[in-house]
Design brief:
mainly alpha; 2 domains; two-stranded antiparallel sheet; globular
Length: about 150
């Protein structure tokens, strides 16, 4: 993999700092992110999405959609962003739904937000608000509000 030495493309998109992770320090091209993520997809209850590449998973979690091959070819990623959005990502422990307010509720279970749901949430709210693999919430966090069940 080619080593790149500046801030990665995700730094600019997510506005979060770059860094090293798991003893890796070199930036790589996002298009070269092709590690086996089948075990990660299984642990996130997304095993039916087995044809997803590591780069596609990272882009979905970062809210990057509709890029051409030439746009993707120039994007770089640091180890910190690659691991935190890729195979070492972990689901949030509380409800991240943008319409749920009030007391923080712990979410658990095997029902998760998949790629299609993330796209639909993005269309409804105008931005990515939940990551692929986040747990699906079955009741509203604030019981005083009349928010439909997810």
């Amino acid at each position: 993999m080619a080593a790149i030495a500046s801030n990665c493309s995700l730094h600019e998109i997510l506005q979060t700092p770059c860094g090293s992770s798991r003893n890796e320090k070199s930036h790589v091209l996002l298009s070269e992110c092709n590690s086996d993520i089948s075990a990660h997809l299984s642990s996130c209850h997304l095993s039916k999405c087995g044809d997803v590449t590591e780069a596609e998973l990272i882009m979905a979690r970062a809210g990057i959609r509709g890029l051409s091959e030439s746009q993707l070819a120039g994007m770089t990623i640091c180890p910190k962003h690659r691991h935190s959005l890729g195979r070492f990502w972990r689901a949030p422990k509380s409800c991240p739904h943008p319409g749920h307010t009030g007391k923080t509720v712990s979410v658990s279970g095997r029902h998760v937000i998949n790629f299609q749901m993330t796209e639909e949430i993005s269309v409804l709210f105008g931005k990515i608000t939940t990551a692929v693999g986040s747990r699906k919430y079955l009741f509203p966090c604030d019981f005083d509000e009349k928010i439909p069940h997810c």
